[in-house]
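Ticket #4471: complex job returned nothing on first submit. Input attached below:
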Amino acid sequence: MAEKQPKPEDLAQVDYRPPKKGWMDPHVDFRKGTYCYSALAKNIEYLGMPNPRDWQPFDADWKLPPNWKQIILDGMKDRLEKYRSFRLFMDICVRCGACADKCHFYVGSGDPKNMPVLRAELIRSVYRRYFTPAGKAFGALAGGRELTEDVIKEWFYYFYQCTECRRCSVFCPYGIDQAEITMIGRELLNLLGLNINWVIEPAANCFRTGNHLGIQPHGFADSIGFAVDELEEITGVRVEAPINRKGAEVLFVTPSADYFGTPHYYTLLGYLQLFHEIGLDYTWSAFAGEGGNFGLFTSHEMIKRLNNKIYAEAKRLGVKWIIGGECGHMWRVIHQYMDTMNGPANFLEVPKSPITGTVFENAKSTKMVHITEFTSDLIRNGKLKLDPTRNDHWNVTFHDSCNPARAMGLFEEPRYVIKNTCRNFHEMPENTIREQTFCCGSGAGLGTDENFEMRMRGGLPRANAVKHVHETKGVNVLSCICAIDKANLSTLMEYWVPGVEVAGIHEFVGNALVMKGEKERTTDLRGTPLRGKEAAHA
Amino acid sequence: MSALYSLLTVLVLILLAYFGVAAAHLGVLFGTVIPFAAIAVFLAGLAYRVVKWANTPVPFRIPSTCGQQKSLPWIKQGRLESPSSTLGVMGRMALEVLLFRSLFRNTKAELRDGPRLVYGENKWLWLGALAFHWTFLVIFLRHLRFFMEPVPRLVNLLADVDGFFQVGAPVLYVTDLVILAALLYLLFRRLRDPQIRYLSLFTDYFALFLLLGLAGSGVLMRYFTRADIVAIKELAIGLVTFSPVIPKEVGPLFFVHLFLLCVLLAYFPFSKLMHAPGVFLSPTRNLANNNRMKRHVNPWDYPVKVHTYAEWEEEFHDKIKAAGLPLDRE
Amino acid sequence: MALMESLHGRRAAILERWLQGVMETYPAETGRFFTQVKDPFANPVGATLSRELAVLCDGVLGLAKPAEVAPALESLIKLRSVQDFTASQVVSFIFFLKQIAREQAGEALRAAPMAAEWAAFDARVDDLALGAFDIYSANREKICDIRLGEMRRKIFMLEKASRLFDEDPEPGGS
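Support reply: We reran it on our side without changes. The output follows.
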């Protein structure tokens, strides 16, 4: 009997062990659930980008321009001369492997080409072959690789499997930043018209209408108006929410998901309450209605084109300075690119809180302040009346969003706001927070429906850490300060850690904020009855 | 496979030098011509690469922030992990260059699977790398005694400290042991760890075998074959004073040592070993996180096509009006 | 019950072989990473695999209660549902146990008189596999629900107030 027993491997009649091949073999399988659909031609055309056409990653023929190879090599040469980061990162990696297991996609999927060092080698090998004497002379022996169509497909697969979260750059002894290499890699792919729709369509929408969903001005006004109405129902207070108002002191810019998606919406309610309560002289803008910058996932030029609206609108409206809402990539752009690209903002004043008198010296050139910097200053100076018991139904942990963490260093401000508005707070394990925070797995434009499986893999390390505090500390809400996080972590939690909700920090502020003239609150902003008020609500 | 090829390459280099001198009597070639050529290639190559990097612009200020930014006065800034001043950046670079801060960064998880305690391998990488680089520096400085007469007191002092344990004759230098151990560890790790082996290239092994050959031949000469130090010094001083001599007492093993050094020097500017000067130029480390305080200028900035408010208002005029929002042009 | 008792004695070896077999369903480099990195936060996949497989192994050997086995099975299948596997590949690892148990049981226990006990053992493995199928298909349904929910969250305001969208949301239009 034993002899007739089939071997385990035979049972499913599949050989599970793929032939061992070196990483220089560029072939990839575009398996459903692990890639994003290509950008529609009309969106590429609208933005005036190259090679608009209909194609999909699973097609055999990607309809590349005939001189594609020259375009890529010229593009590389151009960028090697323009970016010291790119040239240096191509040259100095010693392949020590310190970054290897730091990428959430590698940790979650185990695919070796998701190790940051190898993802970079995909392009570095081409650099060596065509741009270094050793590579030209010795080819593969010197780590060089021919540029073929398969290599281009491989780049597409893996550069759209990097969320530009910068976690690897924290551990690299030379600070090699895979986000920078991915950004350049995507720029090169864009030269051939290889991009994904979930990046290019929002970029086109932002360019045209001022927000990533393509909502037109009246839709924007309706959306804000709706929130004002609902807020009145919950709090009994009618707040002002001026739009495109000239002469206001402050322009407020936030990712458009805040006024269109959930749970972002509750953060929006929090902003509205806060600004009303402190009597801030501010305005929204329907033209600069999007803080999020899909250019960061496309090219440096596109960052500049989209970001341009913020200063332009601040100038047109004649405001003194700008506050930015909860958003991740948006803040990388504002902190590290905006002033350089579209500044100097000489027409603005150094930000000074009209409520506390605090001068935000750290934003004296860019003149834009992060909402948690602004709010924590208000709390510190005792300008807000807060009732944290109204958040007692929440047991909170905080996810440091990648870009505010590793491209800005915003760690204490959000924690200070949370600790003053919530009474139950627990940190996740040390190697998964602050500068070592794990990405949600959907940044940099990868949060598409068709990419679901890859996102769940990439988000597993984050979910796993949440699960730990959920089980050991009873945490039931994961807070964050990023629009992509709010969208994706909700999905991630639903799959991996059911029972944990996702919230923005200003939702807690909204719940806790005691407003002048408010009615007794029986529910939180989501309509959930407050602890001890269940009877009153019923 | 790449490991084997690079081992063979280094062995061929060793045999070339050994028999080049022992059998073909090419002492002048290996003792004079090649060293001068190697140093020339090293200096020219190094300068070329560094100047090329330095001349490539840094369009954006993109530090990786590993600590709290400087913001409100009552929030404690991570001055070394997220520096906002030049002094802070120098501190961060010093930690990085002298102590390999980033390699040390791995924290251990509190939770372990089962009762088994597993030590983080990554700390070993930090230790191995640190041990190798520091001992290499000390050994390099110790070698100055071959090139200088009289020998500077600092060099002698260094040698005394290095030989502190006074074991054997000639005195055993601790660094000789440590450098071999560190190099063997780095090699062992590359071969054993499946992730690292998978991504390692010929050049990665080549550098390690070359350094092992260099250190190994030095150790052989000092402790086992007892090379004629006076003769070697004569040759070395001849090289640095540009009056080369090839004393007969210098054995072929010395030429192996010298030749491997020459290969290393000549190879350096064309290889990943350029990480040494490169780390100083890395934009994610050597820039201050003062982005919103001080404007950074992009030297090749150019105008781009934007969507202006006027265009926007024109396109959506009626809808803006219907929504009751203010218009610039009625 | 001689068979079961004997297998209890070989539990550690069976589990080790099984874990090894499961790791081999992943590409070579991947399996090694999952096996070698012991930090559960740096390697959640490997940690889940080794933790849950131990519970399942005990379940089949009658050392763990069904109430403990169910969540372990769910957590494992959930993981494999979003990895590069077909439906049969997701659950096939359970059948490995039949072969592994026979290898570990030794010559005497593989003899004909034990046929009935082997059949009982195989039935336990089959039950586990059937349970896995159920979880897998429920999981795929749940994924559809989650994806739908995600779509709806993105246009939350649209559901609240359907007047927001106009007739021409396309870029380049009007």
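The mean pLDDT of chain B is 90. Closing as resolved unless it happens again.
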